[in-house]
Amino acid sequence: MGTPATYFRHLREAVVSIFDGMAVSASHLIRRPYTIQYPDRMPVRVQDTLPFRYRGILDVDLEICTGCLACDRACPIDCIAIAIEKNAATREIVISQFDIDLAKCMYCGLCSEPCPTGAIHHTTEFEGADFSLESLIRRFIADPVVAYKAKKAAEPDVAVADLLTRGMTYVDEWAQPGSDKPSAPPAVPAATKAAVAPVVPVPVPGK
Amino acid sequence: MQAWLNRLMVRGAFGAHPIPVLVYAGGIAIACALVLFAIALPFASIVTWVERRVWARIQSRVGPNRVGPNGFLQWLADGLKHVCKEDIIPAEADPRLFKLAPYLVVLAFILPWAVMPFSSSLILADLNVGILYMTAVTALTVVGVLMAGWASNNKWSLIGGVRSAAQVVSYEIPAGLSIFPVVLMTGTLSMQGITRAQGWSPDRWFLFASPFCFAAAIILFVSSLAENNRTPFDLPEAESELVAGFATEYSSMRYLFFFMAEWGNMFVSAAIIVTLYLGGWRFPRVSPSPIAMNLLEFATFNIKVLIIVFVSMWIRGTLPRVRIDQMMSLCWKYFVPIAFVNLIGTAVWVAIWPDGNPFAAWSMLAIGVAGAAFFVRRVVHFARRSRMELYFHPTI
Q: Which of A68, A203, B106, B327 suits A140 as a labelling partner, its CA being 20 to 30 A distant?
């Protein structure tokens, strides 16, 4: 117990520290809780709050896919399966299958790096739970589609031009580490924006 | 025959209209059941939800809010879940004692309600030894807990039970010594007598009657936390050391009994403090109707009790668990000597001012208000320093 002075010092310390401790916890009682009530009681979806470069579930914009197979070759675990046919007469590539097995995908991002147009890219979507492995295979193609080919002039289709802008921003930022903020939406109309997104797809290597 | 029948009549309270003893006993039984089912059990259950919400807010969380409006029906869901679980009795346990222990604990929680002074008329039995009875029957808990610890045949249960016994027996002493100052001032042990000796206004509460009474009230409060195995004295069920202490081997309804008793005892010990030091049910006489007055008094009593219960939840959200040597040193080195000083000081006080000292009461009240104001300032200081958005809504 020590001297009487120590005894009373202990008493005083106990009273003072409990008094302050109670004040701290009372101040927490009047603060807004930190808890984010995912998933059903959110002011905004979590997906919308994630950064542009978030590596969520892969998505493919088939409108701008060139069928170059760069992503297929880059994938370290072969979760991407693409089937293409070349039409020698029209020099077009027809994509008849584009599957990504999300059960295998490890979200490394190596497929979206070599993509010339940014067609294959990660989204901020991450809720992929399902009841069977088969349903985790995302099949992007039902009917064969003709692959995108780079135009000499600006892209005439507004929707495709938008996709290209987005895709090239995505690809461009791989080359410039540090610029990991989504680009501000340009004020110019989408049709005149083709100059901002110089689409120069790499030549499709022959098989 | 007539004489025998007359002996069976209860005259006492009913004077000219004696009623048969069986009717009287039946009425008492129904009244007891009503009090238990209308107040004790719902309180013990619903307070679990309140407590979890309060802790959650103290920890900047939300807490249970999914079952029913704001999670209000969480207690019902938890209760149903426990009832539906398998009631396991370990093979090596002593089955008779193992089964008996939860009932003793619940008994210790239910018996004090007999002398609970809810209002001027609403009390089951105004015993002339009310407060003594209250402390005696609440101490029954230790028998049940020790029995549970022994019968489980489990090292954690046994350590938990023994710790609980040591704790409850130790803290009975400062708690008992902190009841005596009030008994000295009123000269009665009856709950109603003690309540009636106080006034509705805080300056005539025993809390502010003298510095000794104030200290005694604090000691009584902290000791009651220890007797109920509440944080920071929850060593008997310290999860990090003893799994669940004496309740380790229990499951299903028996486990529920232990925790119902633990939470219900919060009401009981808060009621003791309210009756002894915070003016009990006293309310200014605003209405000639006895029913209206009783309702107001009932509300007053319950609000005071709930405030004390809230403080005990708040302490549980604030303080960490003490070590067993710290707990014992707090009891024997600090509380017991201070409680004795309080007792002697109150005796001298009563000898000097047999009818109380209004000046001292008002000074104590002023100091109390100043302390509360300083406390609010500290709260505001900490809230501001955090630079967090303030949020006063009690639910989310």
A: A203
Range of the domain at A84: 53-193
Q: Is residue A91 part of a domain?
A: yes
Q: What is the ipTM of this complex?
A: 0.77
pLDDT at B361 over 90: no
Asked whether residue A68 is assigned to any structural domain, the reply reads yes
- Count A/B contacts: CB-CB distance under 8 Å: 75
Contacts of residue B242, defined as CB under 8 A and 6 or more positions apart, other chains included, come to B156, B159, B160, B163, B236, B248
pLDDT surpassing 70 at residue A65: yes
Instruction: Quote the pTM value.
Output: 0.76
CA of A21: which chain B residue's CA is closest? B318
**Nearest-Cα residue of chain A relative to residue B334:** A11
Task: Indicate yes or no: CB of B378 within 8 angstroms of CB of A33.
Answer: no
**Does residue A26 lie within any of the structural domains?**
no
CATH number at residue A102: 3.30.70
CB-CB under 8 Å, A21 with B391 = no
Rounded to an integer, the average pLDDT of B19-29 is 74
The Cα B104–Cα B246 span in angstroms is: 14
Would you call A30 and B58 a contact, using CB atoms and an 8 Å cutoff? no
Partner-chain contact A33 B396, CB within 8 Å: yes
- Close Cβ partners of B371 (under 8 Å, ≥ 6 residues apart): none
Chain A: closest CA distance from residue B323 (Å): 15
CA–CA gap between residue B327 and residue B222 (Å, rounded): 11
